[in-house]
Design goal:
Order of helices and strands: HEHEEEEE
Strand content: 25-35%
CATH topology of one domain: hypothetical protein PF0899 fold
Oligomer: single chain
Number of strands: 6
Helix content: 10-25%
CATH architecture of one domain: 2-Layer Sandwich
Distance between the termini: 32 Å
Radius of gyration: 17 Å
Strand order of the largest sheet: 2-1-6
Shape: elongated
Length: about 110
């Protein structure tokens, strides 16, 4: 379950940002997570709850914004929404899709005090 390692990385980012002493408590961590990032949100939430213990993010919640996957079809040239990297083009049925968005995994904001 690589989500535990990813959750630890989120906490490491929070610690790094808190290193300058400009805040003492993290209330919320906002994360943008793409549909194609191969990350299970529930497992990530659980991992975050474990990783935050004893840190500046001890009481923080993890707010996950899910973003859809989009791809450009090499067959028909259309931009389409995809759920997995193995999807076919819903317009022409081609399997030649180039992923454009949806693989994001990014801490976008911290709510602190």
């Amino acid at each position: 379950m690589h989500e535990v390692g990813l959750a630890q990385s989120i906490v490491d980012i929070v610690r790094e940002k808190a290193g300058d002493g400009s805040f003492r408590v993290v209330k919320t961590v906002f994360l943008r997570l793409g549909a194609l990032a191969n990350v299970e949100p529930e497992a990530l939430q659980f991992g975050f709850e474990c990783a935050r213990r004893g840190t500046i993010a001890q009481e923080a919640t993890l707010q996950i914004e899910r973003t859809p996957g989009t791809a450009r079809c090499m067959g028909c040239g259309k931009e389409v929404t995809v759920q997995t990297r193995l999807d076919e083009c819903p317009v022409c049925g081609s399997g030649q899709l180039v992923v454009m968005t949806g693989d994001e995994f990014r801490v976008t904001e911290l709510e602190v005090s």
